[in-house]
Specification:
The complex is a heterodimer of chains A (about 300) and B (about 260). With about 300 residues, chain A is an alpha/beta fold. Chain A is built from nine helices and 13 strands. Chain B folds into two domains: about 100 residues, no CATH class; about 150 residues. The chains are: A alpha/beta (about 300), B alpha+beta (about 260). Chain A: InterPro entries: MbnB/TglH/ChrH, Xyl_isomerase-like_sf.
Chain lengths: ~300, ~260
């Protein structure tokens, strides 16, 4: 008989962290930072991982994630479910996603309004979709399936896009609001994506935020972007996740937090990954904004009591 | 299968992602009538570069040997003709070693495909299921007259690869940034890839060692596997080899053959 180590059963991995986790700032967890994180000891905040990186059977990735999860709330961020695609969801992938949720009991679970697989090819990018009644029905059906599988609400992230579809008949905010209403899912508001798309499509980021169902937002993402130009030589922003958050995005973030107060906020950094202190400083900047507005909200709570 | 009404966007959007000869899909546009060529190119670039990066992450020694420009050009061909079929990128590139073996510009490096095979096996071992390796004490406890019938259960991470070239030495010399000394590439070397307690290790097997390890890992009894190894290499040392395989974490368990 083989002596395979049993996976830690869900019950043995105590949730230990109140959900919702409230107004704390988190960072992407990158394995190269593990020694620094462990040396510093448990800290306020949470860590987010891309679910797909932990879909192997065993080995060092799971050992690292168990170590992190023992002392910190976890956010499980799916990247490849292809919720926005026209094809049926990949059942095997959905099962893997469900097992990760059961094993690690994350405080937050999210996926993207995008697609990445078509026919047999996986494109490893978050590709855009048209906003129509037909795609709305398809996306809602996919989210129903995910939420049924994981037995909890999913947070759906607004995309950053570079093109629009001629056939789109709804605004993105209208489309996302309809998804949330029909499926009961929560939302992950990526403020950098709002800024990137606003520049790329020539709309006002403030109007977008005014139109966005903020009451449904269960997590916020912040990230850096890069600059290119479009065919006409105008600015085209790229959602590159390879640098610090831009000043304009910090300003938008503060506007959102002023309205929504405590929302867990992640600083995403996925490429040209800096040393741990740099990433930690970005999270500290988000935490300072959260704390500034939390103290007002908590004072309000006390008055109410 | 035809997409349902109103859901043909992906079929229109996808084909040009990995095919630079195709033009920007008609279904997309920039805002206010702006063009979408450079905009669509962002997606083409994201897809192609991220998949080349994925191969570079799986095959760092191959990239170090060939140099970045050579590697990325070779990987671009492969990415365009063989995009991943799984959303798990650590499963990608299984056919890349064979692609390298056939790649016209890599023919001067006949050992390169074997180095790639070791790197692919390294990553498989890294993600393989957890299991407690067999303790050497288990072998010592077996009665000498039962040794020949012993059958071993391989560890999920264990792999054995054979090469006509010095693939293990070349792999080991190129997995980090240390300077590489001159290597005689023509010495055949066989590799044992395991993940014992924690980390993946790649060992060079002695002559006959790969025949022996392959035999045991495919469930042949110890006596048979040892006989094949001795046939392959007359100097084969059974005791040293079985001890070495167990110490490396190649197995999880053993049994004394037919319980009857």
């Amino acid at each position: 008989m083989s002596t395979v180590i049993k996976q830690v059963p869900p019950a043995a991995m105590p949730l230990r962290f109140a959900t919702p986790i409230g107004g704390v700032a988190g960072t992407s967890f990158k394995p190269e930072h593990l020694p620094d994180i462990l040396e510093a000891g448990p800290r306020r905040g949470f860590f987010e991982v891309h679910a797909e990186n932990y879909m192997g059977a065993g080995g060092p990735p799971h050992r690292a994630l168990e170590t992190i999860r023992r002392d910190h709330p976890l956010s499980l961020h799916g990247v490849c479910m292809s919720i926005g695609g026209p094809r049926p969801l990949d059942k095997a992938h959905l099962a893997r996603f469900r097992s990760l949720v059961a094993r690690y009991q994350p405080a937050l679970v999210s996926e993207h309004l995008a697609w990445s697989t078509h026919e047999t090819s996986f494109f490893n990018d978050l590709l855009p979709l048209p906003y129509t009644e037909a795609t709305l029905a398809c996306v809602c059906d996919h989210i129903d399936q995910v939420q049924e599988a994981i037995r909890r609400p999913l947070l759906l992230e607004n995309p950053s896009t570079y093109v629009a579809f001629r056939e789109s008949s709804m605004r993105e905010t209208e489309f996302i609001r309809a998804i949330a209403e029909r499926t009961g899912c929560g939302l992950l508001l990526d403020v950098n994506n709002v800024f990137v798309s606003a520049i790329n499509h020539g709309f006002s980021a403030l109007d977008y935020l005014a139109d966005f169902p903020l009451s449904r937002v269960g997590e916020i993402h912040l990230a850096g972007h890069a600059e290119q130009t479009d065919d006409e030589g105008d600015l085209l922003l790229i959602d590159s996740h390879d640098g610090p958050v831009a000043d304009a995005v910090w300003k938008l973030y503060e506007i959102v937090i002023r309205r929504r107060s405590a929302v867990p906020t992640l600083n995403e950094w996925d490429s040209k990954i800096p040393d741990w202190p740099v990433l930690q400083a970005e999270a500290a900047a988000a935490q300072a904004i959260l704390d500034r507005h939390q103290s007002t909200a908590m004072a309000g709570d006390r008055h109410a009591a | 299968m035809l997409p349902e009404a109103g859901l043909s966007f992906a079929a229109s959007f996808a084909p040009a992602l990995l095919d630079p000869a195709r033009s920007t899909p008609e279904v997309v546009t920039g805002p206010n009538g702006k063009a979408a060529n450079r905009r669509y190119d962002v997606y083409r670039n994201n897809v192609t570069v991220s998949l080349i990066d994925a191969l570079a992450a799986i095959y760092p020694a191959v990239q170090r040997i060939t140099g970045t420009d050579f590697f990325r050009a070779m990987a671009r061909f492969h990415v365009r003709s063989n995009p991943p079929t799984s959303p798990l990128l650590f499963e990608y590139g299984r056919d890349f070693p064979e692609f390298i073996a056939q790649y016209e510009h890599a023919q001067a490096m006949p050992w390169l495909a074997d180095v790639a095979r070791i790197e692919r096996a390294w990553l498989d071992a890294y993600h393989a299921a957890d299991a407690v390796p067999l303790s050497p004490a288990r072998l010592s406890a077996v009665r000498p007259d039962r040794l020949a019938d012993l059958v071993f259960i391989p560890h999920p991470a264990a792999r054995c690869l054979r090469s006509d070239y010095a693939a293990v030495t070349i792999f080991a010399a190129n997995r980090d940034e240390a300077p590489v000394m001159r290597i005689d590439a023509s010495t055949p070397e066989d590799a044992l890839i395991t993940r014992g307690e924690f980390d993946v290790t790649v060992r060079r097997l002695p002559p006959g060692g790969a025949v022996f390890a392959d035999g045991l890992m495919s469930g042949r009894p110890l006596g048979e596997a040892a006989a094949s190894a001795l046939e392959a290499a007359s100097e084969f040392d059974i005791a040293a080899n079985i001890a070495g395989l167990i110490e490396a974490g190649t197995f999880t368990s053993l049994s004394c053959g037919d319980p009857s």
